[in-house]
Amino acid sequence: MQRNDLPAAVLWDMDGTLVDTEPYWIAEEHALVEAHGGVWTDEHAKQLVGNDLMVSANYIRAHSPVDLTPLEIVHELLAGVVARVKAHVPWRPGARELLESLVAQGVPCALVTMSWESLATAVVSNLPRGSFDAVITGDVVLHGKPHPEPYLHAARLLGVELAACIAIEDSPPGVASAVAAGVPTIAVPHHVTVPKTVGAVQISTLAGLTPEGLLRLFD
């Protein structure tokens, strides 16, 4: 029986929320653009945070001399980030502890990320088996964040009502996606500012947050 002080499920973003991989992505973007004789700025990098990877690849093509296809760009970036994650997983403060507490209390969790399967697998393989009941990656949805499809897909896989769940995000596209799907959303901004959004609350860290404390954030 579902406890009324716990969400029906928690839907987790990955990059920047569960793990601090944004610096890995930014480093790989710099390396790729500079290898093709271009210059990559922090402003360009911030534009890509939370995006669908194909959207990011097209942005790189439009703002640099990189003439690879969008798919080739995604594979180049992914390979570099996966290698970095395999060397060191940069967990965000409090994220792994909150996830473990949710699992221990029987709350279903889904990973909802715009990263592709190879990177999601590299991260999830460092967690106890069964940490996520579903994993939705950017290469299995037709429309990526900020479209609501990734979260709608997660709810279908878990068999839960979106309004009874909680999403945890760190970026404007991610928050927009979850809110558009009707999921009460916790925004934990990190590398980029997240605009105040109806349907979302903002906190500075997941450290110290308990499963029972999630719903109370929306009181």
Explain how this protein is built.
The protein is about 40% helix and about 10% strand. By secondary structure, it is an alpha/beta fold. Strands 3-2-1-4-5-6 form a six-stranded parallel beta sheet. Helix 1 crosses helix 4 and helix 4 packs parallel to helix 6. Helix 6 links the parallel strand 2 and strand 3. The chain has two domains: about 140 residues, HAD superfamily/HAD-like (Rossmann fold, 3-Layer(aba) Sandwich), CATH 3.40.50; about 70 residues, DNA polymerase, domain 1, CATH 1.10.150.
Question: Topology of this structure?
Answer:
Layout: E1 10-12, H1 22-35, H2 42-47, H3 53-62, H4 70-87, H5 95-104, E2 109-112, H6 117-124, E3 134-136, H7 149-158, E4 166-169, H8 172-180, E5 185-187, E6 200-202, H9 211-216
Parallel strand pairs: 1-2, 1-4, 2-3, 4-5, 5-6
Summarize the structure.
This protein has 219 residues and is an alpha/beta fold. It is built from 9 helices and 6 strands; from the N terminus they run βαααααβαβαβαββα.
- Mean pLDDT figure: 96
- Give me the CATH fold name of the largest domain: Rossmann fold
Major sheet description: 6 strands, parallel
The proportion of residues forming helix, as a percent range, comes to: 40-55%
- Largest sheet strand order: 3-2-1-4-5-6
What radius of gyration results from the CA coordinates?
17 Å
Number of strands: 6
**Alpha plus pi helix count:** 9
- SSE topology string: EHHHHHEHEHEHEEH
Shape designation: globular
Number of domains: 2
